[in-house]
Amino acid sequence: MDAIYRHQRHIYDLTRKYYLLGRDRLIAGLNVPVGGTVLEIGCGTGRNLIAAARSWPHAQCFGFDISSAMLETAGASVARRGLAGRIALTQGDATAFDAQGLFGRASFDRIFLSYTLSMIPGWQATIAASCDALADKGALHIVDFGQQERLPRIFRALLFAWLARFDVTPRADLKQVLVDIAEARGLVVDFVPLWRGYAWSAVLRKPARAA
Fold it and tell me: Do residues 189 and 197 touch, judged by C-beta distance below 8 A?
């Protein structure tokens, strides 16, 4: 990952804003409880965490990434915006992370994955681990590339070919994997295709316990 992002990190946010659609929609829908915690898995440049910290000023935010180059950029961005006291960053592997070991806490009120599952080889394990790290009444929010199911075939072919150059693979079976993982853990799934399937959005929630 460092080899890929050592140079790209400097222009990443500028270029990705035109096609990583739905990130701000996800952040706006986090509905973080007062005094709650937010974890981003695969935080990259810190762009999303900074937006989350600003949108939910009462929340404590955490993020990790496997790329030390990206974390260097993220740390500088967080410090530049005066958010070092509210955003904690560290290096970690999304497929086998230990929240307690990384941040000294076992669970989070909100966890989100923004255009990361399409880049993680063991992405199913990432979803499962994220669900296991949810606090009571917690929720996992996801946005990633869809299958372009209601867009012209030529658009899909061109987009997928271009994404493949960056080792990005939209997950065709994402919905079924989410359903299976949620059912095994007693979670509720909301799955919504966005922009004619350009992106897929999902939320896995822990239902409130009966009094």
Answer: no
CB atoms within 10 A of CB 175: 16
**What integer best gives the mean pLDDT of the chain?**
91
Query: Do the beta carbons of residue 205 and residue 31 sit within 8 Å?
Result: no
E strand or H helix at 63, and its extent? strand 60-65
Query: Interhelix angle for 47-55 vs 68-80, to 10°?
Result: 40
Distances (CA, A) of 73 to 70, 150, 176: 5, 36, 35
Query: d(Cα 165, Cα 76) in Å, to the nearest integer?
Result: 28
Residue 73 phi, psi dihedral angles, 5° rounding: -65, -45
- The pTM (predicted TM-score) of the whole model is 0.90
